[in-house]
Amino acid sequence: MAPARAAVRHLPRAPRAVVGSNVPRREGLEKLTGRALYVADLDVPGAWWGVTVRSPHARARILSIERDLGADGARAVVVTAEDLLRAGRDNVVHLIADDQPFLAHRSVEHAEEAVALVAAPTREEAERAAARVRVRYEPLEPVLDFERAETIHKTCAIDKGDVAAAFAGAARVVEGTYRVGHQEHAYIEPNGMVAWPRIDGVRLVRGSLQCPFYVHAALTRLFGEPAEAIRVAQTSTGGGFGGKEDYPDLVAGHAALLADACGRPVRLLYDRAEDMVATTKRHPGRIVHRTALDAEGRLLGMDVEVLLDGGAYVTLSPVVLSRAVIHAAGPYRCANVRIRGRVVKTNTPPNGAFRGFGVPQVAFALERHLDRVARAAGLDRVELRRRNLLADGETTATGQAVIDAGASRQALDAALKRSRFAATARAHARFNRRHAHLRRGLGLACFFHGSGFTGNGEIRLASEVALELLEGGRVRVLAAATEIGQGTRTVFAQIVAQVLGLPYEAVETVDPDTALVPDSGPTVASRTVPIVGRILADAARELDAVLARRVGRPPGRPWTRRDFAGAAALHLDAGGERRVTARFSNPSGQRFDETRYVGDAYAAYAWAAAVAEVEVDLTSFETRVLRVVAAQDIGRAIHPRLAAGQLEGGLTQAVGWALFEEVVARDGRMANGQLTNYILPTAIETPPIELVVLERPFAHGPFGAKGIGELPMDGGAPAVVNAIADALEIDLDRLPATPERIAAAWLAARPERRRA
Amino acid sequence: MRGDLAALEVLRPRRLAEALAALADSDRPCPIAGGTDLYVALNEGRAPARRFLDLSRLDELTGLETTPSGLRLGARTTYTELRASRLVRRRAPVLAEMAASVGAIAIQNRGTLGGSLGNASPASDPAPVLLALDAAVELAARDGRRVVRRRVPLDRFFIGYRETAARPDELIVAVLLPSSALEGWRYAYRKVGTRRAQAISKVVAAVGLELGARPRRIAAARIAYGSMAPTPVRARAAEAALAGRAPTSAAGRAAARALLAEDLHPIDDLRSSADYRALVAGRLLESLLGALGGFRPGLDD
Ligand SMILES: Cc1cc2nc3c(=O)[nH]c(=O)nc-3n(C[C@H](O)[C@H](O)[C@H](O)COP(=O)(O)OP(=O)(O)OC[C@H]3O[C@@H](n4cnc5c(N)ncnc54)[C@H](O)[C@@H]3O)c2cc1C
After folding, report:
1. Chain A (573-602) residues lying within 8 Å, Cβ to Cβ, of chain B
2. ipTM beyond 0.90?
3. Is B83 domain-assigned?
4. Separation CA B288–CA B294 (nearest Å)
5. How far is Cα B289 from Cα B264, in angstroms, rounded to an integer?
6. Three-state DSSP state, A444
7. How far is the CA of B62 from the centre of ligand 1 (A)?
8. Which of A117, A232, A432, A437 falls 20 to 30 Å from A271 in CA-CA distance?
9. DSSP string spanning A548-584?
10. Which residue's CA lies nearest to atom 18 of ligand 1?
């Protein structure tokens, strides 16, 4: 693909390409050598240990909480909702609906909900004391099945064209219902925080998190204190995947409440088992498709119902739902679309953000459904997609005309070519004839992902970053975007260095700390590079202009390090500002009608197609993924190696969700909350992954870049499951496609297979 | 890790007699070999005991050797040792194959045969292989000043869910494989786990056949399964269905029918379903018999 780089004009050219090269990763050596400090590594003299007392019931009234701590009483503190209210705290985790308490008060709405907090000098003492906190419950009938739940957290709807007329005039209508389950983030480092009591009017919390200013907002609300009285700093973080978007608010609040109660620092560190059972997961869902086709297999009408299980509290569910609904019709052309979305309440731990944020669920449903549509229409599945994929400038379900939508076809062509799709299918047919007990198959999925917050979210966020001049011609990036393993620090330094024409090493980055950095928004929604990176590039241009003006040279020309240092010194000596700041300016002029769901849902989309090749063993019904080929248009790879890491990692996570990962619940409690029985793919299960990276630049992204973090998670699962369905000539409509489900579908396909 | 490691006490005897004396004590310690099963419990805060008896210095529990009656495998034999042993690879290659399917390298380095038998999990991978090999367990205990040993055939060792015929004062010293099971027999093994490494078995099967040459007949069969009942089990009905028959797909199918009708009692649990286990147990048997008997099982319809 010839990338039209000329479209990106707002940035100066640099003599040496920093952007686009694989510079050494910023925190790489620290992590490799074990010097990076994670929250559990912090040496905090005098810190006590915190423990959370959790509900064993999915729904219950709290009758009483007794805390006869016996001999340990003198050396332990307990905090309940009553204590918190008595101290005048606001028992609300501030997010969207403000319905979740820090500590359950009078009733519990889900199993593992926090009911009391305990701290003591050592872990053993804290655990003993926690065991003596007696909570009496009156269990109530919980709602556990989301398909029967009646309480609605949020609905949203898309209406485009005239769906009734489209169905009335259809040559064929195909229906299907698809279901997906929870997914656990399984980041390598569980949640954890250390909180200090109020010292000199400031409460400090440090820990593992994605969004320092979310935690900051939650603590400000909890304690009813001004912004400067709360300070939140990130420690080295072992992964997040969305799992550290909102839950750290709760952990931080708990740690801070305990620190307040005992007057000492408190460490609140979850172990794997607590993290798995108590924290958020991907939303399970049921998606129903009704699709109208004309005689040539073109999509006339799409009628989609999206139902998600939000769990007990609203948390992030409304925005997960709106992203799911907006992506539910996929990267396809269809003039008549009706989508209804609903996220409901169940008495289960709240589901939250997870890489993809609602899109993997709807992409699975749609791409599985299109294979079924192709079969019903007697069309080849590739041909069906090719006829219906968007072309440049055509509109999505919200009526957004997308200038580069044709990249979806380029991705499809590239994936087909790299996988040698047709030839591989023929080879599989030969293989299947030769092997009595093995079946190979191919699966395809086309998908897209909007970069940044949905709708007007970025306009409301109004993110801000700063650049600071240091001695010796160095520049420091100040932003709240967190490094969670994806390379934030590295790519930020690259972007700034490239704009200024400075070497990569001349740009420093810091661990986000709300006392030091401006609020550049949360590290979510594939927004770090396209949104925050773009604001950083703007800040760098501003800095360049300021210094150029100071020394009387034209702006937009690369600096030598010496000239830059000289100009900076001159500027500072003359009393110039050390910092320049920049704010989100909505460069694409994006506008979205949030009540009618019409307009520019995202400033940019990344486009992709994936092909999976599988082998299913007919003795055990186990699936081996032989190969995944994915072609993805990401605008511009700022750091090709890190970009590939994101794509490979996301596809691997998708393989796990497709084949293995399943939360088994008993009475609303996760029963397989250990890595023994919650099955993640290991190295052996990770297929060879071949990437084709397409770079059609996004005019308003830094150097043309779009968001890529979530994209690969969206399409891997449908590609894999479509391949299994192809291999065995069966229908699969549920994730994960475990051997148990594959065997059942294989038996159902031909009842005579079920022999005694 | 939950629970308090510092509160635990560990005895580290160098001689078997000393270890057995500790077990004869009223405050009896819990034996620990590789610790790969026990540490899971410790990590979850479910320490089975406060006192432990570390077996790692007991040389009497090591060694792989040929004896007049067959092979003797010390209880402390690890999976890595089984995989590396020429003796095992020559005389009981199925054991090496099984060992390669356990956990991953780190677990293979530490996990032992004695630990697996002592743990008596119904999902043990070694158990069905050792049952098919007609193994016996050598146990030792202290009787006053003497060390007394006895042998229990493995098919009488597992007496209930995680319960064995060993008394609490006994240690597993060795696993014994009789020559009669090593000469003239062929074995096949397959584990179906939750994934391909670091996995607990959902279904695990081992099949041994003694084939007569002319006419080609199955003289005898020993078949065993794991994860299909409260204990690892011998599939005697399936064995009986094969005895005296020619190795054909029809015989395989008859054995699978008998297996599912009489030998196995699968359940639904966290890892799998009874239906799947039954289906796959039957198909595994046909496929393993096909591999040993040189026929093509009819599973492809
Ligand atoms: C990550 C992981 C993966 C695993 N994968 C597998 C697998 O794929 N297949 C499989 O079968 N198992 C697996 N296991 C289980 C375990 O590794 C094996 O059962 C192993 O053989 C246990 O041996 P050990 O020496 O570590 O036992 P230990 O933990 O030391 O002991 C286990 C039990 O046996 C008792 N015991 C130990 N030695 C003796 C003795 N000589 N006499 C009497 N009692 C004794 C102990 O008191 C204890 O009750 C896995 C475990 C883990 C943690």
Report:
1. none
2. yes
3. yes
4. 10
5. 17
6. strand
7. 16
8. A232
9. HHHHT--SSSPPPHHHHHHHHHHHHHTT--SEEEEE-
10. B116
pTM (2 decimals)?
A: 0.96
CB count in 10 Å sphere of residue B1: 11
Compute, in angstroms, the gap from residue A185 CA to the centroid of ligand 1: 29
Q: Which amino acid is at B141?
A: A
How many Cβ atoms sit within 10 Å of the Cβ of residue A664? 16
Both tokens of A324, joined, read 């799911």
Please check whether residue B300 lies inside any domain of the structure: no
The answer to whether the CB of B115 is under 6 A from ligand 1 is yes
Q: Quick one: which of A334, A330, A368 has its CA closest to A448?
A: A330
Inter-residue contact B224 to B233 (CB < 8 Å): yes
Contact (Cβ atoms closer than 8 angstroms) between residue A292 and residue A166 = yes
pLDDT tens digits, one per residue of A234-273: 999 999 999 999 999 999 999 999 999 999 999 999 999 9
Reading the block at residue B262, the tokens are: 């009489």
Question: Per the domain annotation, does B298 fall within a domain?
Answer: no
Residue B194 to residue A677, Cβ atoms within 8 A? yes
Domain boundaries, chain A: 44-141+191-274
The closest alpha carbon to A541, from A585, A511, A510, belongs to: A585
Any domain includes B299: no
**The tokens of A589 are what?**
């002029």
Are residues B124 and B222 part of one domain?
A: no
Same domain, B209 and B280: yes
For residue A354, give the nearest of A216, A150, A180 by alpha carbon.
A180
Assess whether B234 and B162 both reside in one domain: no
Contact between residue A173 and residue A290 where contact means Cβ atoms under 8 Å apart = yes
Q: Domain check: are B190 and B93 in the same one?
A: no
In what order do the strands lie in the sheet containing A438-450? A438-450, A605-617, A623-633, A689-694
B27/B97 same-domain check: no
Q: Which of B13, B29, B54 is at the close of a domain? A: B54
Domain count across chain B: 3
In angstroms, the CA A127 to CA A423 distance is 61
DSSP-derived 3-state class of residue A403: coil
Q: Are residues B286 and B230 in the same domain?
A: yes
Average the pLDDT over A316-333 and give the result.
Answer: 98
User: Which chain A residues are Cβ-neighbours of B2 within 8 angstroms?
Assistant: 127, 271, 273
Q: Which of B231, B253, B286 is CA-nearest to residue B120? A: B231
- Which residue in B194, B257, B269 has the most chain A C-beta atoms within 10 A of its own C-beta, making it the best mutation to test that interface? B194
DSSP helix/strand/coil, B282: helix
Which two structure tokens, joined as six digits, stand for A259? Answer: 């620190």
| A253 closest CA partner among A201, A207, A302 | A207
How many residues are present in chain B? 301
Identify whether residues B91 and B169 lie together within a single domain.
yes
DSSP three-state, residue A436: coil
| Cα distances (angstroms) measured from residue B263 to each of B154, B161, B224 | 17, 16, 9
How many Å apart are CA B72 and CA B137, to the nearest integer?
A: 10
Residue B145's beta-bridge partner residues? none
**Ligand 1 atom 52: residue of nearest CA:** B36
* A14 pLDDT more than 50: no
Packing angle of the helix pair A407-419, A421-434 (nearest 10 deg): 40
The verdict on B196 and B141 lying in the same domain is no
Backbone Cα Rg of chain B: 20
Question: Mean pLDDT in runs of 10 for chain B (301 residues)?
Answer: 85 97 94 96 89 97 97 98 98 98 98 98 98 98 96 98 97 98 97 97 98 88 97 98 96 96 95 97 97 85 55
Tell me the average pLDDT of chain B.
Answer: 96
Q: List the alpha helices (DSSP H) in A95-171.
A: 123-131, 163-168
> Which domain covers residue B42, as residue numbers?
5-54
Query: What integer is the mean pLDDT of A715-728?
Result: 98
Paired strand residues for A478? A466
Residue A620 CA to ligand 1 center (angstroms) comes to 26
Which fold would CATH assign to domain A44-141+191-274?
Aldehyde Oxidoreductase; domain 3 (3.90.1170)
